[in-house]
Amino acid sequence: MASVIMPAVPSESRPGRFGIYGGRYVPETLMAALVELEHAYDAAKADAAFQAELGMLLKDYAGRPTPLTFCPRLTEALGGAKIYLKREDLLHTGAHKINNALGQGLLAKRMGKKRIIAETGAGQHGVATATVCALLGLECVVYMGEVDMARQELNVLRMRLLGAEVRGVASGSKTLKDAISEAMRDWVTNVRTTYYLLGSALGAHPYPTMVRDFHRCIGREMKQQILEKEGRLPSAVIACVGGGSNAIGAFYEFLQHREVRLIGVEAGGSGMELGQHAVRFRSGTPGVLQGTFSYVLQDENGQIALTHSVSAGLDYASVGPEHAALHDAGRAEYVSADDHAALDAVVKLARTEGILPALESAHAVAEAMRIAPAMTAHDILVVNLSGRGDKDMGILARELKL
Amino acid sequence: MPIRFEHKPGLVVYLTAGDPSLETTRAIAIEALDAGAEVIELGVPFSDPLADGPVIQRASERAVARGVRLKDVIALAGEIRAARPQAGLIVFSYLNPILRYGMARFADDAAAAGVDGVLATDMIVEEAAEYLKEMTRVRLAPVFLAAPTSPDERLQAIAAHSRGFVYAISRVGITGRQQSLTADARPLVERIRRWTRLPVAVGFGISNAEHVAQVAEFADAAVIGSAIVELVERSTPEAAPGAVARFIKGLRAPQAAPAR
User: I want to staple B141 with a disulfide (CB 3.0 to 4.6 A). Which of A81, B7, B117, B254 is the partner?
Assistant: First the structure.
């Protein structure tokens, strides 16, 4: 009996694999929906009308293109490389997440889905999804860990105001990982009517590819803008990496330009012990979490480890599979910045440039601050400032004793 | 042992291994087999059981907190095998603990312990090349899940690569009790049978004698999971094996009311 669907070895090149990483590791109930989504996305991607509608919304609703801002006072204070910020913080809703939420929201509408579910960590993806659902007239349920609801309360209130239902998740570490599990349980149960609007470059195929594609505009604009301003490509592009959506969007256009260093910054948290950080590329090992094969923080028995970061958006035990492949191939470097470095970076950027970064994005700023002094004035660092810091005022007030 | 269902319907009992303790799980498994269960599924506790409802989530969380490892579950399987040579024994796990243990080492150790088959919740046929190779090498039966949402081409592949039996998910959703069996189960089993002569077991939400009798009309076996895990949760460790045995005996009695 010949089977239409054949088992294939993971290293085989096929859609949804990044080197050996990625793939689809989900309950069978979701497979039909993932295949339907893959086909719908492929069709939408090739459809000029879909792309035109998305382009119009990105421009007139979300505010693209975002500026590339030179930081004269920060550059001078550090005394090395010239520092530029890609200003995703200026987008509607305050972070890059709206790029993907608009793309997938239009796709859900095109697929005839009326009910949208999403997970959120820092709340930026939840706010972006709630916003898009309001715009398109779709029902919206957002899952959020109870720890994250407490530390990002402003975003919980924004989601509710926008008409979304926020469902707290009290299992496990009560953070992003648990919110994703609960969203997947909802999806498994309501898969016939519901669209899962996943917010990072994570999960089963086609999500990592689709989410990356919706954020590719970041790197595309970045490249054009730096060429206009400086006439050459940057020495490095720096972005924070939780699941890794803003980073993969920023990196993708530069992959072919091997002279441009790509630096992803993970959350160093409060210490080196397992449970105190989210540095997957230092102490993680390849494994399967929530649909994809990638680096995972886990114990020696394969139980997923707890994580910690001052930033809810980076507080996750796994990482997008394309980053795992870029790591192994040596094309991107992954470093970490701890909670203190991120908080210092918030203050520094606020007081030299008048820009308040999200705690997540501050990890990328911290890495730029670390490496810029040893570089020359000829070097250019472009930091993807993925979001703004208003949402973090409660944490900042407490941590910085404002 | 090849997996056989000699009763109609066969009964497959899922237990979260190590909840409340490995010794209690062993005692429950043996009592369950003696009460008429043909197959025991030993659930490997996992920190992030995303296909499971609240009952198995809680049991899994308790067992993880107690430090129950895949290694312990394989050893437990070996003890059950030694005590009941005719029983069907399946290891039921999320993929990550198996990957961390090492696929080949897992296959060797599970086979050596006398396990008959493996069900990996988040392993679909397309990703299963290495897994199937290892299962075949040590003659373990890979059991794949089939869902009401699976189109025929997927059911064909699932049937072609499963051994022992095919596990039909009774409804679209996660594990846990339900009031009545949904209309999804029968057509799914009928579609599966177009592709295989393997027995078909129906699981998810099967919690009483009425459900079991309904399943018997169109499938070969019923899988009881959350209802038993919840019964164990509500019982003392000493009382749990007896309570589970009584519950199982009540499942095949046609006139029996649901055990409470």
Answer: B117
The Cα–Cα gap between A255 and A324 comes to 14
Cα A285–Cα A291–Cα A297 angle in degrees, nearest 5: 25
Report d(CA A290, CA A26) in Å as an integer: 7
> Could you tell me which residues are beta bridge partners of residue A139?
A115
Give Cα B130 distance to the centre of its chain.
22
Cβ-contact B17, B42 below 8 angstroms = yes
**Please, are residues A351 and A394 in contact by the beta-carbon 8 Å criterion?**
no
Q: Write the burial class of residue A1 (CB in 10 Å: 0-12 exposed, 13-18 middle, 19+ buried).
A: exposed
A:B CB pairs within 8 Å = 151
Cα–Cα dist B115/B112, whole Å: 7
- Cβ atoms of A140 and A167 within 8 Å: the answer is no
Is the preceding peptide bond at A65 cis, omega within 30 degrees of 0?
yes
CB A239 within 8 A of CB A250: yes
pLDDT value at residue A9: 57
B151 contacts A26? CB cut-off 8 A: no
Residues in chain B: 260
Q: How far off is chain A from B253, nearest CA to CA, in Å?
A: 31
ipTM score for this prediction = 0.95
For residue B252, the model assigns a pLDDT of: 86
CA–CA dist B70, B46 (Å, integer): 9
- Measured distance CA(A322)–CA(A311) in Å, rounded: 22
Q: Which amino acid is at A207?
A: Y
Count Cα neighbours of A32 within 13 Å in the Cβ-side half-sphere: 18
The reported pLDDT for the residue numbered B8 is 85
Question: Could you report the per-residue pLDDT of A210-242, keeping only the tens digit for each?
Answer: 999 999 999 999 999 999 999 999 999 999 999
Residues A269 and A278: beta-carbon distance below 8 Å:
yes
Residues 6+ apart with CB under 8 A from B245: B31, B32, B34, B35
Sequence spans of domains, chain B: 10-142+205-251
Using the Cβ of A302 and the Cβ atoms of chain B, whether some distance falls under 8 Å is answered with yes
Q: What CATH code would you report for B10-142+205-251?
A: 3.20.20.70
Contact B99 A287 (CB under 8 A): yes
* Cβ separation B124–A26 shorter than 8 A: yes
CA distance B195 to B20: 40
B237 burial via Cβ count (<10 Å: 0-12, 13-18, 19+): middle
